[in-house]
Amino acid sequence: MPADAFVRHVVTFGRVLREAGLEIGPRRLCDALTALDEVDLRRSDDVYWALRATLVTGRDEIEPFDRAFSAWFLRAPVRPPSRERPQKLQLQPAQARRGERRESRDDSDDGDRKEVGWSPHEMLRRKDFAAMTPEEFGELRALIAQLALARPARRSRRLRPHARGVRLDLRRLARASLATGGEPIDRVFRRRVDTPRKLVVLCDVSGSMEPYARALLLFLHAAVRSGPRVEVFAFGTRLTRLTPDLRARDPDQALATASARVLDWAGGTLIGQSLKQFNDLWGRRALTRGAAVIIVSDGWEREDPALVEREMARLARAAYAVVWVNPLKGHPEYQPLAGGMRAALPFVDRFVPGHNLESLEELAEVLGGIERRHAA
Fold first, then answer.
1. What are the average pLDDT values for consecutive 10-residue runs of the chain, which has 376 residues?
2. How many whole angstroms separate alpha carbon 345 and alpha carbon 328?
3. What pTM was computed for the model?
4. Do 242 and 364 share a domain, yes or no?
5. Which of 126, 148, 290, 324 is spaced 20 to 30 A from 231 at the CA atom?
6. 136 located within any domain
């Protein structure tokens, strides 16, 4: 295999490890390539130990690394680990549960069976935001805010006491042994815990996105208030940071302040130039390093799409995962034919719609399932 092809092979393996939950960055990949220069690439054991020594930092990362190595380098069939999908919001009332329906049928005198059929909540759940009346949109505000609580997680470096931990807590063990004459009878353990991953959102507020802007900004307002390490930017022809404005408790006040702050609201779209401004200013501050990045846009670019491709490549190299939300994707006949969208798709990890409440539920599942790893 040529040298350039092998480097691309290893870099792609790094992305596979990132999908498996390991914190793989450019520095670790450089160390891995340096280590591979010192071993015989024809020996799989040498390649394995060179990569494991440079890419694995903890005991809990060995198992996913072994699975990824067997699947990528040895082409061995590997069964993917099972994941628990986040539970969707239940819009039906509690008395509509199956068990309670069965009990009500058993206790009825006339023996009539009543099943839950058509529901206005289900209609609103699938109705396009652009076609909603203000009254219908008001009914979904609380549900949209609840969906925004889903946050991607990462494994923290800090160790916390845990009954099923894998490392002995020597300090607590020594302290507890004082009551037993210095004999460490009760063993106590620690393990790394999950902590919210950085979340960066870039929202298109151009004229073509105006029918969906209010619903999406309401979603972003709840995301900012869900906890720390959330940053929101708006872009049309320029980039505007909205995080301080969306921290207000009142959603209407926050949305009014944010819309007044964006000078290019409902204007044109310069996706590539806005991404370049973000990468040059905020990317250098390591804001996107290890973060989950959400880009909300229909992909319409007024200028050369080559700039979008170049800046998306920069963004994808630094981010942990890139999710693109396109409201137009909710239409059955949609195809990503816009120049900006076609240029960005090769660097997108998940491509989801964002035109109604059901699509926001899918986005919440994606965010909640971005490699949430559990300790062994």
1. 74 83 80 88 87 86 87 66 44 40 44 45 82 83 86 80 75 80 78 86 91 87 90 94 92 88 86 95 90 94 93 94 93 89 94 91 85 38
2. 14
3. 0.63
4. yes
5. 126
6. no
